[in-house]
Amino acid sequence: MRYLTIALTKGRLAKKTMELFDKIGINCVEMQDEKSRKLIFVNEELKLKLFLAKGPDVPTYVEYGAADFGIVGKDTILEEGRQIYEVLDLNIGNCDMCVCGPKEAGKYLEHHQFIRVATKYPNIARDYFYNRKHQTVDIIKLNGSIELAPIVGLSEVIVDIVETGATLKENGLCVLEKIVPLSARVVVNPVSMKMEDDRIKKIIKDLRNVIEKQ
Ligand SMILES: Nc1ncnc2c1ncn2[C@@H]1O[C@H](COP(=O)(O)OP(=O)(O)OP(=O)(O)O)[C@@H](O)[C@H]1O
Ligand SMILES: O=P(O)(O)OC[C@H]1O[C@H](OP(=O)(O)OP(=O)(O)O)[C@H](O)[C@@H]1O
């Protein structure tokens, strides 16, 4: 039997994903050793290979078939636009993609002809503002601490993830418009879905059962 390769997202989603995997009998203890520099973990018994990657790289591994399937945030799926199947919502890492800014920017957003939008998600922002044909929207790509942009005058608004709202609140900003709810999803390579159908389907079914019980 060939090995199935699974790509997990590093960072915020990692711990919760591994907890779910543990519950369906896929042991991830070795992957949780933060001191280790090991990149790939082989489960001989289940014929699985697991690895952790940066979020935006997970859809890339899955599209090319280097991973048969992966776990990644919906934000990343939308932003990367890869040829992959999204098959299950894991209901972890729940948050929202929003347009945010100072309260006054709400009116600016409605009436002004020229809007600057800072974001780590330029494709999501471009798609969202695409329909506002009467406005010119300048999308400014940043790599973190997006909330700084309207504070220092780089942009009027931002497109970013809001979870608890604490970052916005502490910086005098608020949600102006909600774009889309987000959570972690299972994504599958289209060829793997056909070739390894039964094994992948079994893992998806087991994950679904665990989620439904939670
Ligand atoms: N408060 C949050 N902020 C950012 N992402 C969140 C949050 N809550 C849940 N998520 C989800 O967790 C995923 C991974 O988030 P994480 O912050 O670890 O990655 P990242 O923002 O790409 O990290 P970094 O840029 O620091 O490498 C996101 O893609 C998103 O789906
Ligand atoms: O609503 P909250 O619970 O405050 O969470 C949202 C914040 O968390 C994320 O930033 P992150 O911590 O990933 O740092 P970054 O801005 O450097 O990417 C996100 O970009 C927001 O800034």
From TrEMBL:
Assembly description: Heteromultimer composed of HisG and HisZ subunits.
Description of its domains: Lacks the C-terminal regulatory region which is replaced by HisZ.
The name this protein goes by in its record: ATP phosphoribosyltransferase
Family affiliation: Belongs to the ATP phosphoribosyltransferase family. Short subfamily.
A Pfam family hit: HisG
GO CC terms in record: cytoplasm
Domain spans labelled ATP phosphoribosyltransferase catalytic: 56-208
UniProt cross-references to Gene3D superfamilies, sorted A to Z: Periplasmic binding protein-like II (3.40.190.10)
